[in-house]
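Q: I'm writing up a methods section and want to include an example of the input and output format. Could you take the sequence below and give the corresponding predicted structure tokens, formatted cleanly so I can copy it straight into the document?
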Amino acid sequence: MRKILNIFEFYKTTLPFNLMFCAIAVFLGGPDCFFIFFLSFGFLASISYKEFYRKNDYLFYVNNGVSKIQLLVFSYFMTFCTAVLFGFMIFLKNKLF
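A: Here is the clean output for your methods example:
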């Protein structure tokens, strides 16, 4: 349970940076670009930011028994689930209203 909470905490720290890049994409390319950037470029940019500027944060997760690969895979999985949830909500909004 502690591992899952640590992975979720890592995901929460990457989410604001990812959303910032996606907001820029929405302003420049429209709302359809959100999902493409959220799943690809935004996620990679947030991981790159963590890799270059917050490298010591990985030590905390390693000390708690979570490898870097686990962090990246589960974070991308949660990003994918979030994108699917947002997409489904937008689909329902467009169909119902």
